[in-house]
Design goal:
Distance between the termini: 37 Å
Structural class: alpha/beta
Radius of gyration: 22 Å
Strand content: 15-25%
Helix content: 25-40%
Number of domains: 3
CATH class of the largest domain: Alpha Beta
Largest sheet: 7 strands, mixed
CATH architecture of the largest domain: 3-Layer(bba) Sandwich
Number of strands: 18
Amino acid sequence: MADEPVDVVVIGSGIGGLCCGALCARAGRSVVVLEAHQQPGGAAHGFERGGFHFESGPSLWSGLSRWPSNNPLRQILQAIGEGDLPVVRYSDWDVLLPEGHRSIGVGCDAFEAVVRDLSGAAAVEEWRRFVAVLQPIAAAADALPLLALRPGVDMVAQVLKQGPRLMKHLPAMRHLAGAFGPLVDRHLQDPFLRHWVDLLCFLISGLPMADTNAAAMATLFGEWFSDDACLDYPLGGSAAVVDALVRGLERHGGHLRLGTPVESLLMDDDRCIGVRCSSGEEIRAREVVSNADVWTTTNWLPDTTAPAWRQDRAATPACGSFLHLHLGFDATGLDKLPIHTVWVGDWERGINAPSNAMVLSIPSVLDPSMAPAGQHVLHGYTPANEPWHLWDGLSRGSQDYKRLKDERCQLFWSVLEQRIPDIRDRCSIVMEGTPLTHQHFLRTHQGSYGPALSAAQGLFPGVNTPVAGLWMCGASTFPGIGIPPVAASGAMAAHAIVGRKAQSQLLNDLGL
């Protein structure tokens, strides 16, 4: 392999990298996906301990159970022959908010009942008007699927090329590239509604509503507040989604190599021609795609290569990091646990304030195969709100590290004990993670969720780089953080490599 170049090397088997690799393989390219760790999936990987199947990343999924779907991940799964991924549909999740404990249903009627209870009939009418404002924006986003976009091509030009089918959406499309906050400011005044939207934005993007992309949120509203809205849980968890992408990659002739960390990018003059692995092996490729974060990718390049671009991208601000809790515990007598609970401490502190929000997921509520009989498995995390500076310079395993971990992770237990007072006594497995854990296993800059790029300042950088033969995908590129965006970015990088004809064939095959 070191002597004969492959068509495409993808660095990193996160969702974006696997989507890119699978679509390139589907188009007939020879593809190798390299993963530093022993399990694929990046932030979406799963692992097993004592019969418990733990998740490490995303826990809220939607748009997987139906076809057609506007979810780019679902579209890619369909394209690579994995569209029949088994999922369980469900319609509500719990919240522990300053206003109290509520079960929140997706769909208009269920949410309006909560709004009426908390804020009254006037707030319900305000919410209905807001949803009506978002409908044409969601329709515009749906009319121009992310898989139809090509990197470096102006969106208006693509609208004009698509013809009359898209022209009716042109007035609403002006909102797609901006932030969601201005729309909220113009149309929502009720404090609870504004806080709720801010929470949804933060859960989706790791940023408050003033910085979150309007197109992503309009699409989410189109999915979560329609008459037949539901959430989806893939049987087997996030690892099952990753396994499906790997199967699709390999079905079309691509290869996944685990335990193969990359040390640097190989250059021939100004062109990237492959990668050098930490083992010393060199893998030559006609095209290289980095699914690593932007800080890691720029560090792989020589100092003399694209210095201005490297300096600019290396200065990208980072979202906060995570605390994690993984539990295996006795389920006896716990018959009505929700699959998800979202906790918020104090709205006035700001949704992204440290230790102010938490997500708890118990997937074995819907999928008993995730845990041994009579047991539950839990993943808790603080979403992109743990400050890196608290951990910078500490060594994993040191006494100072252990003391800080115990102190910071106490938040999980205080929230869990509100629902399960004897949770500590029920546990057979307890694993607590920190930003250093996150950094170690995901090889991410400062253990970060990804770049903190505000939609108010324009679009995320694209998949293009100024280095010939080098592309990027994942959370460091357009359209940003989250499962649908990183899947779409993988598709965009693939489109750039395989060309317009292969992309057109893909869209025709999917009916997009």
